[in-house]
Amino acid sequence: MKLSTFKIGGVHPSGSKLSADQPIKVMPIPDTVYIPAAQHIGKPADIIVQKGDKVKVGQLIAKSSGFVSANIHSSVSGTVTAVGPVPDPSGIAKMGVTIKVEGDEWMEDIDRSETLDTNVDRFSDKEIIDRVTAAGIVGMGGATFPAHVKFTVPLEKKAEALLINGVECEPYLTADHRVMLEKSEQLMVGVKLIMKAVKTEKAFIGIEANKPDAIEKLTELSHKYAGIKVVPLALKYPQGSEKHLIKAIMNKEVPSGKLPIDVGAVVSNAGTAVAVYEAVMKNKPLIERVVTVTGNSVKNPSNFLARIGTPVRLLIEAAGGLPEDTGKVISGGPMMGKAATNTDFPVAKGTSGVLIMPEELAHRREPEPCIRCGKCVDACPMGLEPYLLSVYSRKKMWDECEEHYIYDCIECGCCVYSCPAARPLLDYMRLGKSTVMGIIRSRKK
Predict the structure, then answer these.
(1) Which of 9, 100, 279, 315 could form a disulfide with 135 if both were Cys (CB 3.0 to 4.6 A apart)?
(2) Looking at the 3D structure of the chain, how many domains does it have?
(3) What are the pLDDT digits (tens) for 49-80?
(4) 281 and 192 in one domain?
């Protein structure tokens, strides 16, 4: 069978899915959680609790402060001990809520039963979006875009199809893989709920071919859910990018500066679909998620279900501890993740994985002069010229960066991966992109 994929660029890094066969383990509730107020793209939520307040699991502690923002809920029950800076992977403290755990008392309106609820018809599209909004659901593949915004299709647009991203093409990470295997029915109901919210009769679940067990299981289940089809995809990074998933499945290209809905697509992560099921059918806010803890030297690479706010060091300890040869800890995967300055940072809604790299793999080579080989151009899935854009960015030539579409960069890292001279292409691409986007926003104002 021929497998679908996108055509331009892309690379083939080793999968290194060390934890793929490890079932999800439930992490013990920690003594203290640190819950950031900004766990989404957009304006941070406004904290509505004070030091000394008692809270329950699922209680609203920070309220969405705008359309592109998301509610934050307590993941534990206990006492608020501080409202102020909490740890961050970058080492820059961010505003949040610290809670000392006392028992495990949940809000009374959350359905904690394991009974599968498939009665999607009892909710209207508006009721689904309202529940998703209230629950603070965001994209759980890492982008953390508020789900209710994505599901609110503008009146002048039409969603032809919903695409569920089960690709997980980032090396090492296996959280979505395990969710698809262990939360299959909940995922399917979640997909039906999103289909109803965006008013479409078609949904495609894209899964790369290195997850044959997930493809088989969801394909078998799809026969029970009208309109849902599983699409096996070829192994190619960054297959999980929205635009490239749309190309692979729908054979449509999202024009520069446009959104998926402009070509009739709504894209949502597999884990997000499960969170939607829990929010709508169980009235459960997004208070926990599956996190992969892995690495070549990690004793027990694992997938953990952890409460939001749990210090990452506790997950690392549960996976066997920090290896002696640790050279770098990364929040996320090796291609798009960010190096962490500490292990005290908390699990957040977008924390898909923690990668511990050994010393021998953790350091970049010294950059050498560009040899004009063009490999970065061949690898760029967006058809950009990273060697040129990185020079423009380094020299602060922002007009030239904009003229050459630097804002289309998806920061996938294919350019760096393919560069034989070890040039810091992505660093300059990120700098140029953020600067140019700022200039464009200022111009619009």
Answers:
(1) 279
(2) 2
(3) 999 999 999 999 999 998 899 999 999 999 99
(4) yes
DSSP secondary structure letter of residue 311:
B
Summarize pLDDT for 389-436 with one digit per residue, the tens.
999 999 999 999 999 999 999 999 999 999 999 999 999 999 999 999
Give pLDDT, residue 143: 83
The answer as to whether 108 is a domain residue is no
Q: Which domain holds residue 409?
A: 375-444
What pLDDT is recorded for position 90? 87
Taking the C-alpha atoms of residue 251 and residue 263, their distance in angstroms, rounded to an integer, is: 10
- Tokens 């970058």 sit at which residue? 90
- pLDDT at residue 1 is higher than 70: no
Contact 186, 116 (CB under 8 A): yes
Residues 276 and 417 in one domain: no
271 and 388 both lie in a single domain:
no
Same domain, 288 and 357: yes
For 175, the 3-state DSSP assignment is helix
The pLDDT, as a whole number, for residue 332 is 95
Nearest Cα to Cα of residue 346 among 35, 28, 30: 35
Using alpha carbons, select from 370, 387, 297, 381 the residue that is nearest to residue 336.
381
383 and 238 both lie in a single domain: no
